[in-house]
């Protein structure tokens, strides 16, 4: 297979000597000979022809090479000669250029040196010229300042001195200026002259500023205030300004205090507001002026505020002391110390009447004093926030209260005198308000809520005691005062003390006592009022001949049954053995609603508190929010939830349980038949039992639906009823099935009846439907045929067994032994 390769080589080499046609012919002939070779001799002949062709080509190639080699060698020699010649020329040109660059470099160095020398000479000339000009400027301004001082042109004098002090110090004190500047009129050295003039002008400006301050001449005040920085006396100017502001604050305070002699409620809060508004307005208006003319003095505004803060402390302290004395707080504290809260400390029966002298310590007066003092604290807090945020801001959040405020005299007075007084007042006010609310308590009538109506709904505003409404208003007002005061320690103390009062006096002394006193007796029920009962109540309510009305007032806790409502309760109670709508049961419902409403009201009060805007410093906001939540709201919610749960359980056990048992017994009637309930297909459509259950369930649940709190009470009661109903149904059904067993028709009707019952009880509440899972599975088991039951006990593919895994998609809550036992009840 190498021959075609050689043929191709032959074609390549032949191209050097032969033309393309001859080469193609030779290759074609060789290729044809190769294809037509039939014997080895033919192949040998082809090979010989190829070798001959190659030899001929090699001979031609050698001849061609010998002919062309001399000319090729001559060309190479010519090229080498040309390269040598041109390289020599290039090197020669490069040397010439190097010489030229060297000459240029030397010339450049020479020029650069001369230019630098010239620049230095120019710089020296300019320095000398500037020095001469400055000396001339110094001399001219000294002459102008002397002339201005002689003619009382203070603005020109200050401007000249400002120009002089702006010159380099070494020029003013230099020998040249000391020789050139002094003259016959001003023989002193420049520095001594300027220092003397500055001292003189400082005294003049101070005198002029004070004179303008006494005359309240704003134009002259501004004029001389802006001259102090021109002579380098910024601090003296700021001192004069601070003294002027202090005088204004003092006069404003005196004027405001003189207006407070009327003693009307809230007057001192108004005085405090006006004082701090006046101070803030002055600082805001004068701040740009200070920044403009005293920009070179570091922290000029901070310096002024530090100076005037002492006067502010004095004046607000005088207002606070005047308030303290005018309101006779020491006498009020003595009276508070003698008051022992007789209504809250009652240990006798509920109807005991304790006379309370409201004039001894008027609760409204105490409330006004608390609001007034809280307003003083609030506006002091606003002032502190304004000063700190605008003039003493911290480089990074959170904002930190300025040390100037922390160490101020009024802050010390607040901590030592005013806050303790504040705490005494609001502790008394909160507890006394609770006592007053209990004393004037009113209970609503439940009659409007117990009316029988097909469209009756759960009330938006459930009936509750007036005590919780009054106390919520007091808590809201007092807590808002505490928060707006901006005093974290005061808020902490108030929350602790108010919760102690709530826990002892409201929860233990009022809620629990009222619920226990009105706890339902066994078999007392709540029932809707029908028109027939209302008509009967009207007959009883009409006094007969010779039957006088009782003139004895009813106790406050029983006062909701008045007139026809009281008579209605008497008729109903008398007709059924004092078991329906008993007055104490009605009271119990109202007080249970009161506990739930207290939880809702207090939650709203605390959620509406604006903490962040009143506590911007440090981590006060987070601390106050934790105090409100952890020290009051959460403990109160936990305690009231426990009271609600226990009260609902008591209500169920005493009033509802027996009725629920009767309802279950009526639903699952025991018969003497061998099968459960029915024994033929004709009984499948019998719905009398279901209608009876619907009426009984509605009569049981609707009175509570129409009277109990719709989010905190009724859902919990309904859940309790459903759980117990499910348990009672399961026990009763197991007894009936064990006694009678059940057939196919019975299981069908049982499934229908139970489905109807669950729909009536739970409606769309799927959480309640889950309570019936056990009994639903019992009914499912007794309704299965043998094949379905067998399949339900087979394990799911890939599962671990029927006991551990779902079967037929059923998540069994019944154990295998329970399922086998229940299955035996099917016949």
From TrEMBL:
Domain COG4 transport protein middle alpha-helical bundle positions: 194-516
Location(s) in or outside the cell: Golgi apparatus membrane
Family annotation (InterPro entries): COG4, COG4_C, COG4_M, COG4_N
GO cellular component, one term: Golgi membrane
Matching Gene3D superfamilies: 1.20.58.1970
Coiled coil regions in record: none
GO biological process: protein transport
Pfam families: COG4_C, COG4_m, COG4_N
Top-level division of the source organism's lineage: Eukaryota
Principal location listed in the UniProt entry: Golgi
Membrane topology annotation: Peripheral membrane protein
Keywords: Golgi apparatus, Membrane, Protein transport, Transport
Family as reported in the entry's similarity comment: Belongs to the COG4 family.
Protein name from the UniProt record: Conserved oligomeric Golgi complex subunit 4
Organism for this UniProt entry: Spathaspora passalidarum (strain NRRL Y-27907 / 11-Y1)
